[in-house]
Design goal:
Helices cover 24% and strands 20% of the residues. By secondary structure, the chain is an alpha+beta fold. It has two domains: 46-289 and 532-558, 3-Layer(aba) Sandwich (D-Maltodextrin-Binding Protein, domain 2), CATH 3.40.190; 297-525, Dipeptide-binding Protein, Domain 3 (Dipeptide-binding Protein, domain 3, Roll), CATH 3.10.105. A hairpin with a 5-residue loop joins strand 6 and strand 7. Helix 7 (315-323) runs antiparallel to helix 9 (365-374), helix 8 (327-334) packs antiparallel against helix 10 (403-417) and helix 13 (483-493) packs antiparallel against helix 14 (498-515). The protein is globular. The two termini are 34 Å apart. Belongs to the bacterial solute-binding protein 5 family. One of its GO terms (molecular function) is peptide transmembrane transporter activity. Keywords: Signal, Transport. Residues 88-462 form the Solute-binding protein family domain. It holds the Pfam family SBP_bac_5.
């Protein structure tokens, strides 16, 4: 999400520095780091990256899955791109539009994007504003099932200039986050010439994991779902004349086991890995041939509540659950300190958005029991509360094979037992969890679910909580609808001044704490690692995450160590 200061509200104010932490080792991986004869970037090399989850679609705006976004960051160039500090810059576009340069109308309803001349797709065909227009129309088609539709739905009309170098969008209402909706690879334009004769609903089915025409620093070479995805240099990349990308090739290996990732690192067969298991931090520190990278994430970890379950209509149940969670214990025990306690959806990466003085629900087991007592939920002989034939017994799920989330589950399960709530734990592979499981919204199967979320480069959170974003039309996976929240979303979307916008976000936070569509747990600190002899590996808090700046990754002597 874009952090926007003053009249420059399309530029991010806060730069979250990446902290590189080299560690001495008692147990080094095999091999020795290569040394460079030059401090300047060198072309060449095959970089191997371990992906913890399998991508589900490698087409822009076809997936909400983080690891699909990571790979998309190598395959597609967007109108705008973010950097490691979270700032947005022009990419295919010539400039960031502002009110001062005439790119944005004073009412935030008209937006003009101007593209660089001479852009090409990976197959050599022209890339221009026609592709942007085509993308809007395709994403608007329900059969495409776009991942992000909040901004797209607001477009009433658009016109492309005669030279096809600019497009002007007219929105039905003001929408301050509009640029964020066109930033980074997962929100990059689609190739009109390649897809225009295809039914929008068939695009993902046909080329979902094997896109044939791309625009980023790399293009797809080989895809073997369940094993690896190989991307190679795109000679038609818009920065190719500057020698980018430096690498010849990246191999993304699908490794859905943190134990296997650690073994790969210990054997020295991976150049990098991201979203590491914090419970293995001592083992990562022991790898003298690698450097560990930590950076505050834009993601918040939440215990999400399926509002389709009629029991959760009782606010007292949700309130008691919020009071029974010890966030500091989760941070210290499950995350080994690699997190920041947080009870809302905006961590310190968001300005506006983050509310430092927010009063979170207190950890109070006695108080939580009183709330349920007063609401008529009586403790049964099996120590589970009941009322009107209903039991406070729920399914609690998250992504499988995630050690720190399993620890979260154990801690929360134990604390909920103290207030008469029984949790049954069933976890799922990422592709199932973020697919049919959550989108199905079936009570008794999906009751409580834990996952991490963020909002690209802008703190606008309507996509996750607005009434019109409930599946199958959007990504409101809490299935929660509250008209008062919708009004606040519309209010913040119409404001460009960050101070005034922050005031509205404060109201949104309080409403969420009052209504509790989810229970905030903590703000993640991303843990990543890269091998010595590799350079410019700087994951960012937003968008492409691990592959921010991927065109500038390089290896000593043009040969990557793994």
């Amino acid at each position: 999400m874009v952090k926007r200061p003053g009249s420059r509200f399309l530029t991010i104010l806060v730069a979250l520095s990446l902290v590189l932490i080299p560690f001495a080792s008692a147990c080094a991986p095999q091999g020795t780091p290569t040394t460079s004869n030059s401090s300047k970037p060198q072309r060449g090399g095959i970089w191997v990256d371990d992906l913890f989850n399998e991508p589900d679609a490698l087409i822009p705006n076809a997936s909400v899955q983080t690891f699909a976004t990571i790979v998309n960051g190598t395959l597609y160039s967007a109108l705008f791109e973010g950097d490691a500090s979270g700032q947005i810059h022009p990419a295919l576009a010539t400039v960031l539009p502002t009110q001062q340069n005439g790119g944005i109308s004073s009412d935030l309803k008209t937006w003009k994007f101007t593209l660089k001349p001479g852009l090409k797709w990976s197959d050599g065909q022209p890339l221009n504003a026609d592709d942007v227009y085509f993308s809007w129309k395709t994403w608007s088609n329900p059969s495409f099932a776009a991942a992000s539709t909040v901004a797209i739905r607001l477009i009433e009309s658009a016109e492309v200039s005669s030279d096809k170098l600019s497009i002007t969008f007219h929105l039905s209402k003001p929408f301050a986050p509009f640029i964020a909706s066109w930033t980074d690879g997962s929100l990059a334009p689609l190739p009109k010439h390649h897809f225009e004769n295809m039914n929008p609903g068939d695009i993902k089915k046909t080329e979902g994991l094997n896109p044939q025409v791309t625009s980023g620093p790399f293009k797809m070479k080989e895809n073997k779902p369940g094993d690896h995805y190989t991307v190679v240099r795109n000679d038609n990349y818009y920065l190719a004349s500057q020698g980018l990308p430096y690498l010849d090739k990246i191999v993304f290996r699908a490794v859905p086991s943190q134990d296997t990732i650690l073994k790969d690192l210990q054997s020295g067969t991976a150049d990098s890995a991201w979203f590491l298991d914090v419970t293995k931090t001592p083992s990562y520190k022991a790898l003298s041939n690698y450097e560990v990278v930590t950076n505050p994430s834009a993601s918040y970890e939440g215990l999400h509540i399926n509002s389709n379950n009629p029991i959760f209509k009782d606010l007292n149940v949700r309130k008691a659950m919020a009071m029974a969670i010890d966030r500091e214990q989760l941070q210290k025990v499950a995350l080994l300190g690699q997190a920041i306690p947080l009870c809302t959806d905006h961590g310190p990466a968001y300005h506006p958005g983050y509310q430092q003085d927010l009063q979170c629900p207190p950890f109070d087991i006695t108080g939580a029991n009183k709330v349920l007592d007063d609401a008529g939920w009586k403790l049964g002989s099996d120590n589970v509360r009941q009322k009107g034939g209903q039991r406070l017994e729920f399914q609690y799920s998250t992504t499988a094979n995630n050690r720190w989330r399993e620890k979260d589950q154990a801690l929360i399960q134990a604390d909920f037992a103290k207030i008469g709530i029984k949790l049954n734990i069933t976890n799922y592979p990422g592709s199932t969890f973020f697919g049919p499981f959550l989108n199905g919204g079936q009570p008794g199967k999906y009751d409580l679910a834990e996952w991490a979320s963020s909002y690209t480069y802008d703190p606008d959170d309507a996509a996750s909580f607005a009434c019109n974003q409930i599946p199958p039309h959007g990504q409101n996976l809490n299935f929660f609808c509250d008209p008062s929240l919708d009004q606040l979303f519309q209010k913040e979307q119409a404001i460009s001044d960050p101070t005034q916008r922050q005031q509205v976000f404060n109201q949104i936070h309080q409403t969420m704490l009052d209504k509790l569509p989810f229970i905030g747990l903590y703000n993640l600190i991303d843990l990543a690692i890269h091998k010595k002899g590799t350079h410019n590996y700087k994951p960012g808090p937003f968008g492409n995450s691990e592959t921010v700046g991927v065109a500038q990754w390089w290896c000593d002597n043009g040969k990557c160590p793994a």
